[in-house]
Amino acid sequence: MSLAPITVATLAGMKAKGEPIACLTCYDASFARLLDSVGVDLMLVGDSLGMVLQGHRTTVPVTIEQMVYHAACVSRGRERALLVVDLPFLASATPERAIDAAGCLMQEGGAEVVKLEGGAPMLDTVRRLTEQGVPVCAHLGLLPQSVHRIGGYRFQGRDHASAEAIRHDAVAMQEAGASLLVLECVPAALASEIALMLSIPVIGIGAGAGCDGQVLVLHDMLGLNPGRPPSFSRNFMTGQVSIGDAVDAYVRAVKSREFPGRDEIPY
Ligand code: KIV
Q: Is the pTM of this model over 0.85?
């Protein structure tokens, strides 16, 4: 494994070579060190921290100050992986708010890419951020920040119209300047088609094996969450003696395309 820091250009090169990108969420310095040591390519300080660290039922209560705090913790622990950080709920409601929030995440939190949820309404914001030199990761499919509007955490893109909207938004995000795309909980066939269509890397979660990379919530893949895990996740602690071994097994499973397996692809 090369120890050179990973950049958006490294990830684009991995896509071009067909090398799967292994991503995990990360929220603190000790896990950042551990994830780096086993070759995780991208660490996402996701606003999922509102659920897995803070115990909220949704990501909506998470604030920009909290995102900056956790991003800075991860940034201090990591040396190699690319650091992507979520803009929390309403931080991207206008391009001006998004630019201010991205400034905090990059200058105080050490973010190298900012991620924002949403399709067509976010295009102007993506353009404005990239014009200012902010690399953007778009996020389409299931949008957890919109859970109250959607009425639950539901798979998206299962009918013709919504699949077409996701396909269209994915191309538009790339044209607006996005460097990466996360596709969450969409049918595997749709995600593969989008990954083939785009030149930017497409990272899937609950989106099948045809994406350019995979991301899971750290606490889900370590079996740390009470209750039933998401159907697309896997408990990588099973049969392992340490957290390091479990994360290493995840990286190897993504790189060999063994994860996600057939029964971990819901649609
Ligand atoms: O917040 C998060 O952890 C995310 C992933 C689920 C992609 O956005």
A: yes
